[in-house]
Amino acid sequence: MKFGVVTLFPESVAALTDIGVIGRAIERGEVVVDTESPRGHAHDKHRTVDDRPFGGGPGMVMTPQPTLDAIQALKARLPPSKVIYLSPQGAVFDQAMAQRFSEMDSLILLCGRYEGIDERITERAVDEEVSLGDFVLSGGEVAAAAVIDAVARLVPGVLGHPESAVQDSFADDGLLDHPHYTRPELYDGMAVPSVLLSGDHKAIAMWRRQQALLRTSRRRPELIEESTLSEADKALLKKIEPTQG
Ligand code: 4GM
Question: Is the distance from CB of 79 to CB of 105 less than 8 angstroms?
Fold first, then answer.
């Protein structure tokens, strides 16, 4: 899958995507991250990409021409792509959106700086406005890198072990993940739950399901209402007092 990123700081996106499983997928050529800076499309001698807001107020706004030309330059190099603008005003990003984006051949991510971008950029070139959540970053680059990571790891072949994408929190049922343990069995007086050492795979699966249900109902009850629980799930949720929240 190919990602195009329109950013005034191309190195910052590369620094975040060139590591870990996504970095290795980029090395193998399974994922491509191509960047384009509006700065290179500014025509004046100071390479100006922003200006003061009409109507007054603090900060600067990215002007239409350099950013729209940068988007066009990426479109010319990539397969037909949707343009996603990362902003706090967007629809909230979630696993279902990541799944939908991962089914595309390519995606262009537009990063804002300053107070944001001239609305005519959005009107002319943006297909979807997406937010990571209700907080403000100094630029869209960290949000774009998060979207690239969440989407790329769903592309077949990118993760080493294909089942780990399926088993993730949210993946199949929209529930939070169960707790995980590894060695040692006893750490500073804290024991691993004995069922995980039992070798009883049915009991382990049931315990994990129950922990996922209990965690979700305590931490994110709104997710439980959305997911349709089986009768077995409802029984698990009622049965035992949880070991942790
Ligand atoms: C638009 C306006 C995304 C974009 C002002 C980007 C938070 C998110 C920016 C801006 C961003 C988010 C860039 N901040 N919640 N900052 O996904 O500063």
Answer: yes
